[in-house]
Amino acid sequence: MTRSPRSRTSAVFAATALLACATPLLGAASANATTAGGCQSATVQYRIVDADGRPVGADWTSQGGFHQWDSAPGTVEVRLAPGQTVGDGCKYPVSLAEYTTEGSNWYTSGRQTLVDHATVYLTAADVADTDSGKHTWQKLTVKTPDCYGQIDLYGDDIIYDGKTEDGHGPAPYQPDNVVTPYHLIAAWNGGDKPCTPDQPDSPTPTPSESTPDTPSTPPTSQPPAQETTPPATPSTPSTATTPPTTPDVPPMESTPPATPTPSPSDSTPPLAETGSSAPVGLIAGGAAAVIALGAGAIYTTRRTRRS
After folding, report:
1. Which parts pass through the membrane (predicted)?
2. For residue 29, what pLDDT is reported?
């Protein structure tokens, strides 16, 4: 028996309906949310300037390491090295921190105590170019230590002062090899005297307040003092080298929005979504209706062929 045009049309309609319903479901199952753009690490350059903004010593550099200061660097200018492509919205935190220490270099620095801290955020506007002579670069300024101290230039906005709340981290401590700050770019240390806290002046006792004379020999009941040997002092520092440095600074993980976040109805969705935010329920309902319609068409086609 030859199929009628009506039966062929019904069959084609049913197959098309099934294909149309399966395609969005397969796409919804395999799609992943995507976001546009992305920020990569960037290389920082720095230089030390005086109170008038004139460079002190070497000009722009990315050289790391620890440097002994002739005079403590109170102000440091920073920028992003030339030849880099920095996307719009990418930010790179750079901080300068000053610590008092127990010695004039890393190996004798002991426990460090934060005194001052400053942070700037570099963007695409801070990339060096051919017209850099007319550019005003961002500056970091901290207090100048007047005793043993260390100044760290590093690539994040964490305050390494030993506190535990958000935005803080462990303070540097050489004997325990606590090599903070992280993302250290360069460091300077020095000083010529210990950082001792101010001691209040103690009153000089008057003759009436003086201690009475004591016997020159101890009582017979008191045992003689035993000689004690002081603990041996390590001949080598606990850390073989100074902490590592790098001029490459990671971008901020997230930037707080300047304006309130728009509601889902006002925002542009990602290129593809899955999960609870995707309209899988609506797709499934529509697919079920199309499947039912296709099944009915197939049933009608078979009835027509039998008749």
Report:
1. 278-299
2. 38
Same domain, 57 and 179: yes
Same domain, 49 and 175: yes
Q: Within a 10 A sphere around the Cβ of 9, how many other Cβ atoms?
A: 13
In tens, the pLDDT along 144-168 reads 889 999 999 999 999 999 999 999 9
The whole domain housing 157 covers 42-196+243-250
Q: For residue 252, with 0-12 CB atoms within 10 Å meaning exposed, 13-18 middle and 19 or more buried, which class applies? A: middle
Query: Does residue 131 have a pLDDT over 70?
Result: no
Asked whether residue 113 is domain-assigned, the answer is yes
| Cα distances (angstroms) measured from residue 92 to each of 87, 153, 205, 206 | 11, 13, 60, 63
> What pLDDT does 21 receive?
41
What's the pTM value of the predicted model, to 2 decimals? 0.60
The C-alpha atoms of residue 48 and residue 54 are separated, in whole angstroms, by 8
Q: Based on the fold, state whether residues 76 and 186 are members of the same structural domain.
A: yes
- Count of domains in the chain? 2
Is the residue at 217 inside a domain? no
pLDDT, position 51 = 84
- CB 150, CB 189: distance < 8 Å: yes
Instruction: Give the per-residue pLDDT at 156.
Output: 96
Q: In the block, which residue shows the tokens 């220490």?
A: 101
Q: What is the pLDDT of residue 221?
A: 52
Residue 63: half-sphere exposure toward Cβ, Cα within 13 Å: 9
Statement to judge: residues 11 and 135 lie in one domain: no
Residue 267: is its pLDDT beyond 50?
Answer: no
Instruction: Tell me, yes or no, whether 168 lies in a domain.
Output: yes
Nearest residue to 109 via CA among 117, 118, 100:
100
Strand segments, DSSP code E, in the chain are 42-49, 66-68, 75-80, 92-100, 113-122, 138-141, 149-154, 159-160, 168-169, 184-190, 248-249
Cα–Cα distance for residue pair 191/105, rounded to 1 Å: 9
**CA separation for the pair 60, 186 (Å, rounded):** 13
Asked whether residue 130 falls in the same domain as residue 68, the answer is: yes
